[in-house]
Amino acid sequence: MTTISGYDYETATASPVSVEELNLLKASVLFGPEDEAALRKAGEVLADQVEDVLDVWYGFVGRHHHLLAQFSGPDGEPISRYLTAVRGRFGQWIRDTCERPWDEQWLAYQHEIGLRHTPYKKNRTDRVESTTHVPLRYLIALIYPITATVRPFLESSGRPAEEIDAMHEAWRKAVILQVALWTRPYAPGPW
Fold first, then answer.
1. For 121-158, what is each residue's pLDDT tens digit?
2. How many of the other CB atoms lie within 10 Å of CB of 13?
3. 78, 72 in Cβ contact below 8 A?
4. Residue 65, exposed/middle/buried by CB under 10 A (0-12, 13-18, 19+)?
5. In whole angstroms, what is the distance from residue 95 CA to residue 34 CA?
6. Residues 142, 139: Cα–Cα separation, whole Å
7. Phi and psi of 164, rounded to 5°?
8. Residues 131, 108: Cα–Cα separation, whole Å
9. Contact 155, 164 (CB under 8 A)
10. Among candidates 167, 179, 115, which has minimal Cα distance to 143?
11. Is the domain 14-186 a CATH 3.30.1490.100 member?
């Protein structure tokens, strides 16, 4: 269990998505055993670079008012303690994406992450007054920067190009799959 505020697998509500449905999503993004292995390697490479990755991502968000607004108060000013708290969880998410088994507990926490982007739970964990939700279109659109910006960090390992390609593709598939899971709370009907 991690000690990061608001990041608790043990208290996450069970996901409405079954392991069988997760396996179908994995098949849909062509995520197989070779990707699991490559993702573990990516986790080893990224382990000492998580804060640097977060610097890049936070810089990106900070340069786009419509994204930074999701972390801002009614006055339009960013809420620094909110950004800091989310940053800690975001760093743990990187680690967990690469290292944790994708089981029922992991699925439950993915559902929790999705809920925290919607009116159901946004702002509650950190007790802030910010936007009521993150528009789904931004979650989907952020797949690209969250995947593209990781590649230079993987390349810094000096590993062979084919290994870097495999790690990067596994990361991309993992992000797409998780964003698909995070959309579940946005779609109460036929998901």
1. 999 999 999 999 999 999 999 999 999 999 999 999 99
2. 10
3. yes
4. exposed
5. 18
6. 5
7. -65, -45
8. 24
9. yes
10. 179
11. no
